[in-house]
UniProtKB/TrEMBL annotation:
It comes from the Bacteria. Residues 11-252 form the GmrSD restriction endonucleases N-terminal domain. This is GmrSD restriction endonucleases N-terminal domain-containing protein. The lineage of its organism: Bacteria, Bacillati, Chloroflexota, Tepidiformia, Tepidiformales. InterPro entries: GmrSD_N.
Length: 626
C-alpha cells in the first residue's frame, strides 16, 4: 500500500473542507459527537497538545470511485474533492462546526439529547492558571441567553457589547478575530486592563489554533478499493463498524446506482412471499449475489474489470463483495431474490416456519445461491434428498457458525455438482459430526442443533390434543413452541437438575393451550387431563406421543430416568436419519448419571396438581411447562 505522512495546518484543512476540496466518502456515517467530546477536543488544540492523526485518501484512482459528500455544515462546498477523509471525520466536523460557521451548532448532550446553540471561549477563564481548560468553552442556547431553572437570566450574550463586557469570544471567529477585536477595544478602551487580557488571550490561545498542525496520513489513489475499505475499518473507531453493504453502497453511488433503494425493493418482495425472510440482512443478500455471480462468471469464463480482466474464483468473501461490478450485481440480484424465496419454501418443507427457529441464517446465503442455479421445485426426489442431507449436515454438524466464507465457496460448487451427479459428496457432509453426548448439552434455542432437532420433531409430530400434523396453519393457530415434557418444577421437586431437565431430550413442540394444561403436573397426572380434554383413547394418546418419539409407558410411571434414556436414543436416531450417517459414539456415550435421582414421594405427589379437571375450566391453567 502506498501512502505519505505530512503535517498540515488545521486552518488549511478546514478551508479545504469549506471549498469542497476535502470531503467524506459517502459510506461514512453521520457526525455524532456530543458537546463534551467537542469541548475536550477544543481544549486539547487550544493547549497545543496532540489530538491524533488524520487519514485522507487521494481521489481520482482507477478503482476508487466512491461517492463523496461535504463535511457536515460545509453548505457552500461546490468544488470536486481532491481528498476524502477516512479517519478523523468526527474531529474535523466538530472543528468545522465550531470554528468556521457563523451559525448555531446542532449537537447533543452527554445523554444523547439534541442540543443546539453557540460556543464561546471565556477569555478570563482560559487565562486563569488554575483553570481546567475545558471549562472555558461555554455553550449557550440559540438566543445566547443562559437561564437558571426558574428562568432567571444568568448571562445574556445576545448583543456584541454583552460579549465584550463578559469577555466571551465566539469560537467561530478563532481564525478571523479582527472585527471582533476592534469592537472589544472600542468597548473597553486600549488603555484598560482588558487590552492586556486580549493580548495574552491572542498569544496563548488563538495563536495555538492558527498554528496547530495535524499529522496527516495520505493514502495514494493507486491503492485498490478492497485495501482502502480494509484500512478504513481498522481505523474507524467512532461508532459501529461499517458493513460491507454500506461500503458497496458508496461505491455504486459513484456510478449513479442506489443500492439501498434496490435492496429495499428486493426485500419487500421477499418478505411478501414469505415472512420468514424478514431477518435476512442486506449484507447477506449482497453476499448471496456475489456467490452466485462469481459462480456464473467462473463456470462461463467471464472476466471482471474489477479483477484486472481476470475470471473470478467462486467466493463470497468481503473482498469478493467489494469487487462485484455493478453490472454483475444488477444482472444477478433478481435471481437471488427468487433464490431466497425458494430457500424459504425449502425451509417450510423442513417445517421451519418461524424466523426465530432458523438454525443458521448464514446458511441461507449458499442455499439461496444454490437454488438460483438448480431452480425450485427440484427436478427429482433424488435431488431434493441430497439437498436436504447437505442442509441438515450443516445444521446438526454445527458447521455454519463463525467464519463461513470458505465453506460458502466450497458448498456452492460441490453441492450443485453432487446434486446433479457431476461430482463427489460435498465436504460439508463429510465434515459433519454429531457426537452422542452433544444432545445432552442442547438446552437453549440459540443453538443451531437445538433448533434443528426441534424442526425435525415438528415435521413428524402431531399436536397432543387435536392430533393435527404440525403444518404451517396448525403451527401458528396452535401457537406451537418448544416446551418441557417432564415439567421443570416437577423435575426440581424430584431432584433433577436443570442442566438435565432443560436438555432438548426433555422438550418437544407443544401447543400453548396444551402446555398450560400440562402446567407443573407429573406426567401421570397431566396424561389424564389430556385424555379428558382431547377425548383420547389410549391408542390415540400413544399415537400422539409416539409421533414425538416419546414412549407412553415412561410418562405413565413418572419414570424420568427411563424416559430420558429411551428418548435420547430415539432423538439420536432422528439425527442420524437427517444427516444420512451415524452419530459419533454409541447411544450411551456421554449419558448423564441419572441413577441417583430421588423417586417421587407421597409429599411430592401431594404438591402436584390434583387429577380433578374442574379447576381447568377457565384460562387459568397454572404454571407453564417450560
Amino acid at each position: 500500500m502506498s501512502f505519505g505522512i505530512e503535517k498540515e495546518f488545521l486552518r488549511s484543512l478546514l478551508e479545504e473542507a469549506e471549498k469542497g476540496h476535502l470531503q467524506l466518502p459517502d459510506f461514512q456515517r453521520p457526525w455524532v459527537w456530543d458537546i463534551d467530546h467537542i469541548r475536550s477536543l477544543l481544549a486539547t488544540i487550544s493547549l497545543g497538545q496532540p489530538a491524533g492523526a488524520l487519514m485522507l485518501l487521494q481521489t481520482g484512482g482507477p478503482h476508487l470511485a466512491f461517492k463523496p459528500r461535504p463535511i457536515e455544515g460545509a453548505d457552500k462546498a461546490t468544488a470536486a474533492p481532491h481528498r476524502l477523509v477516512l479517519d478523523g471525520q468526527q474531529r474535523l466536523t466538530s472543528l468545522y462546526q465550531t470554528l468556521m460557521r457563523d451559525q448555531p451548532i446542532a449537537t447533543r448532550d452527554s445523554r444523547g439529547k439534541p442540543l443546539t446553540g453557540w460556543l464561546y471561549i471565556d477569555m478570563q477563564e482560559a487565562l486563569a492558571e488554575s483553570s481546567d481548560r475545558e471549562s472555558c468553552f461555554v455553550f449557550t442556547p440559540p438566543d445566547r441567553v443562559v437561564r437558571a431553572f426558574n428562568r432567571e437570566i444568568i448571562r445574556d450574550l445576545s448583543a456584541p457589547d454583552a460579549e465584550f463586557e463578559h469577555m466571551m469570544f465566539p469560537s467561530y471567529l478563532v481564525f478571523d478575530p479582527t472585527k471582533w477585536q476592534t469592537g472589544f477595544f472600542k468597548y473597553h478602551g486600549v488603555e484598560s486592563e482588558a487590552y492586556d487580557v486580549w493580548t495574552k488571550f491572542q498569544n496563548t490561545v488563538l495563536e495555538r489554533f492558527k498554528t496547530y498542525l495535524f499529522p496527516v496520513i495520505e493514502l495514494k489513489n493507486d491503492n485498490d478499493r478492497a485495501s482502502i475499505c480494509h484500512v478504513f475499518e481498522k481505523v474507524n473507531t467512532a461508532g459501529v463498524p461499517l458493513t460491507t453493504f454500506e461500503l458497496a453502497t458508496a461505491t455504486y453511488a459513484a456510478e449513479g446506482f442506489e443500492l439501498r433503494k434496490d435492496w429495499d425493493e428486493h426485500r419487500k418482495h421477499m418478505v411478501s412471499a414469505s415472512p420468514i425472510l424478514k431477518e435476512v440482512t442486506e449484507t447477506q443478500f449482497l453476499q448471496a449475489v456475489t456467490l452466485y455471480a462469481t459462480y456464473r462468471a467462473n463456470r462461463e469464463g467471464i472476466p471482471w474489470s474489477t479483477r484486472n480482466g481476470r475470471v473470478p474464483a467462486v467466493g463470497g468473501r468481503r473482498q469478493d463483495m467489494l469487487e462485484l461490478p455493478l453490472d454483475q450485481y444488477r444482472a444477478h440480484a433478481p435471481a437471488i431474490r427468487q433464490g431466497m424465496i425458494d430457500a424459504a419454501k425449502f425451509l417450510h418443507s423442513q417445517h421451519i416456519f418461524d424466523e426465530r427457529f432458523i438454525p443458521y441464517d448464514s446458511q441461507l446465503v449458499p442455499l439461496s445461491a444454490i437454488l438460483a442455479v438448480l431452480g425450485w421445485p427440484l427436478k427429482s426426489m433424488q435431488h431434493f434428498s441430497k439437498l436436504k442431507q447437505w442442509y441438515w449436515c450443516g445444521v446438526l454438524g454445527e458447521l455454519y457458525g463463525g467464519t463461513t466464507e470458505t465453506r460458502f465457496s466450497a458448498d456452492m460448487q460441490q453441492v450443485i455438482d453432487w446434486v446433479l451427479n457431476h461430482g463427489p459428496e460435498p465436504a460439508t457432509i463429510k465434515d459433519a459430526v454429531f457426537s452422542s453426548g452433544r444432545i445432552d448439552e442442547l438446552r437453549y434455542r440459540n443453538s443451531a442443533a437445538y433448533k434443528g432437532i426441534y424442526a425435525l420433531l415438528t415435521a413428524e409430530a402431531l399436536e397432543w390434543l387435536s392430533l393435527q400434523p404440525m403444518q404451517h396453519a396448525t403451527y401458528f393457530n396452535e401457537k406451537i413452541d418448544i416446551h418441557h415434557i417432564f415439567p421443570r418444577d416437577w423435575c426440581r421437586r424430584n431432584g433433577i437438575a436443570d442442566a438435565i431437565s432443560d436438555s432438548v431430550v426433555n422438550k418437544s413442540p407443544i401447543g400453548s393451550y396444551t402446555n398450560r394444561l400440562i402446567g407443573g403436573n407429573a406426567p401421570s397426572k397431566y396424561l389424564n387431563l389430556l385424555m379428558a380434554r382431547g377425548e383420547h383413547t389410549p391408542e390415540s394418546l400413544e399415537k400422539a406421543l409416539t409421533s414425538h418419539r416419546i414412549a407412553l409407558k415412561f410418562l405413565q410411571a413418572d419414570d424420568f430416568a427411563g424416559f430420558y434414556q429411551d428418548r435420547r436414543a430415539r432423538l439420536l436416531q432422528l439425527v442420524a436419519e437427517a444427516m444420512g450417517k451415524p452419530v459419533a459414539g454409541n447411544t450411551m456415550q456421554g449419558m448423564p448419571n441419572l441413577s441417583a435421582l430421588a423417586p417421587t414421594t407421597e409429599a411430592d405427589a401431594a404438591a402436584d396438581i390434583a387429577e380433578n379437571i374442574e379447576p381447568y375450566e377457565t384460562e387459568e391453567f397454572g404454571e407453564a411447562a417450560g
